[in-house]
Design a protein that fits this description.
Blueprint (H helix, E strand, L loop, with lengths): L3 H6 L6 H24 L5 H22 L5 H18 L29 E14 L2 E8 L8 E4 L3 E8 L9 E3 L23 E7 L4 E6 L4 H7 L2 E7 L6 E7 L1 E2 L2 E2 L13 E8 L5 E6 L4 E5 L2 E2 L10 E4 L4 E7 L6 E4 L2 E5 L31 E12 L6 E6 L10 E3 L4 E8 L5 E5 L4 E6 L2 E2 L6 E2 L2 E3 L4 E7 L5 E6 L2 H5 L3 E6 L1
Parallel strand pairs: 1-4, 3-8, 9-12, 20-23, 22-31
Antiparallel strand pairs: 1-2, 4-6, 5-7, 7-8, 10-11, 12-17, 13-16, 13-18, 14-15, 14-17, 18-19, 20-21, 23-29, 24-28, 24-30, 25-26, 25-27, 25-29, 30-31
The protein binds copper (II) ion.
Copper (II) ion binds next to loops.
């Protein structure tokens, strides 16, 4: 308007002198809108320069087409601006301020656990045909089954898991989701190890010193690999099982929910622990009907003072785990996932859709945050945009305006207390997952967490939300820090935490 207004007021008979500035203003507005919608926040130098190039080029072309009078010098300099902006913006020349890709260089691997393993497993990854709810579908399976074998241990065990790859061309690794293993056992290809190719093997060894419900999955081509079935349950119990203690991994294979494992009938009064595991890339809603229950643990860590819940649903993020405990009632009990009964001991009301959802940030007994100051603070702005750093621009899920591998790593020192502020500026949920550490939830949308301390490894950051979480940097190495909607992780939403 600043450009067009004065000229309009003095408009002579010839419309062309007005039309060009008017069009320029229009192009500039559209350019800004495109940058906002396609690129998101914060606008990068590349996107800005591309927009400038487009606006200048469109204005020059329009001026030529209208035959408006203009000096050669103006026309030439406009062309130069457009070309330079285009080259710089597409990354054909070095974009100013662009972060150099950090090489994934690690020193010698940490000393391996020397103790004799007390629990040995072999997992062989191979293509397979499996039964998915009554239909045979093509899958990638560990030991021919989806999910893979359940790995269980008791606190103090030394686990040794031999991974073999028979014919998975994309390569395979084992990542122990939520298990804070030494870095060289974390199973991230290109970061902590090379992917295991067909015919190769890799031996993982770590001490089972954290009790709780976890799972393992391939981290090589993880989006397709996990979806096709390369995952399984890892449970570490503090001691002998009392009562009924079962894992309920929920997974969608070839578009269909896999049937839950058969659960035996339990006599009234016996304690029951259902270990719910979401191995999909999106949130699931779980409703336990017919009994009061408590959420004993989230992401493998016991909650403080969990109170009984009745007719209340829980939302489990991608990768997350909730342990529900109750004493078996004499009347039937049923577990519904997204309204579908996955387990029932008899007829129970199915009207769970209107139940309220538990907010874990206000559940249980509060305890003071163990730290009063933070040595390092980082902000992660989750968004979407065009990744212009490649020859062919791609739509990306971004962190601070960049996509993997161009997101600078967050560097910490051993012993640092680190705080992340995670802002979701996009329209979709991003289940956040930091490897090698559990983070303590401090606040969401400015409201301090008011319930039991929540030590999570997977948490949904919903559109518009701002989460503050913290942890002590106590596990040296190079750790993936990414969205666990694995399609998003593939499309750029992955960065790394590095110890200096
Ligand atoms: Cu995401």
């Amino acid at each position: 308007m600043g450009v067009t207004g004065p000229r309009l007021l003095r408009a002579p008979g010839d419309i062309r002198s007005v039309a060009v500035p008017l069009l320029f203003a229009g192009y500039a507005t559209s350019g800004a809108l495109l940058v906002t919608v396609l690129h998101g926040y914060p606008a990068s130098a590349g996107a800005g320069l591309l927009a400038v190039a487009g606006v200048v080029a469109a204005t020059v072309i329009s001026a030529r087409a209208l035959g408006a009078r203009q000096s050669r010098a103006v026309s030439r300099s406009a062309l130069v601006v457009a070309v330079v902006a285009l080259l710089t913006g597409t990354g054909l020349t070095v974009a100013p301020g662009a972060a150099p890709a950090e090489p994934h260089d690690h020193g010698p691997p940490a000393a391996r656990i020397a103790d004799e393993p007390s629990r040995r497993f072999t997992l062989t990854a191979a293509t397979a045909t499996v039964d998915a709810g009554g239909r045979n579908v093509a899958a990638w399976a560990f030991n021919g089954q989806v999910p893979g074998p359940e790995l269980s241990a008791t606190v103090g065990d030394v686990m040794e898991v031999t991974l073999r790859n028979r014919d998975i061309g994309r390569g395979v690794t084992l990542h122990w989701h939520g298990y804070d293993v030494p870095n060289d056992q974390d199973g991230v290809p290109g970061v902590t190890q090379a992917a295991v190719r067909p015919g190769q093997e890799f031996v993982y060894r770590f001490r089972a010193d954290q009790p709780g419900t976890y799972w393992y999955h391939t981290h090589s081509a993880s989006d397709v690999g996990v979806r096709m079935g390369l995952y399984g349950v890892l449970v570490v119990r503090p001691g002998p099982v009392t009562g009924l203690d079962v894992t309920v991994p929920v997974h969608t294979l070839a578009g269909r929910p896999l049937p839950a494992p058969k659960v035996e009938q339990v006599e009234a009064g016996r304690p029951v622990r259902l270990r719910l595991i979401n191995t999909d890339s999106t949130t699931h809603r779980y409703a336990l009907a017919g009994t009061a229950y408590r959420v004993a643990a989230i992401d493998g860590v016991d909650l403080r003072g969990p109170t009984p819940l009745v007719d209340t649903a829980v939302l489990i993020p991608a990768g997350g785990r909730y342990d529900l405990v109750f004493d078996a009632p004499a009347t039937p009990v049923a577990l519904f996932v997204d309204g579908r009964a996955v387990y029932s001991t008899g007829p129970v009301s199915t009207a769970t859709g209107a139940w309220p959802v538990l907010d874990p940030l206000g559940y249980g007994t509060t305890a003071p945050v163990p730290w009063s100051r933070f040595d390092k603070t980082f902000t992660l702005v989750l968004d979407r945009g065009l990744d212009l750093r490649r020859l062919v621009p791609r739509y990306a899920h971004t962190v601070n305006g960049a996509a993997d591998p161009d997101i600078p790593p967050q560097v910490v020192r051993l012993g640092d207390v680190v705080r992340f502020t995670i802002v979701n500026r996009s329209q979709i949920v991003h289940p956040w997952h930091l490897h090698g550490h559990h983070v303590l939830v401090l606040a969401r949308d400015g409201e301090p967490a008011a319930g039991s301390p929540l030590w999570l490894d997977s948490f949904d950051v919903r559109p518009g939300e701002v989460w503050k979480v913290a942890f002590r940097a106590d596990n040296p190495g190079m750790w993936a820090n990414h969205c666990h909607n694995l399609a998003h992780a593939d499309a750029g939403m992955t960065l790394h935490l590095r110890y200096s």
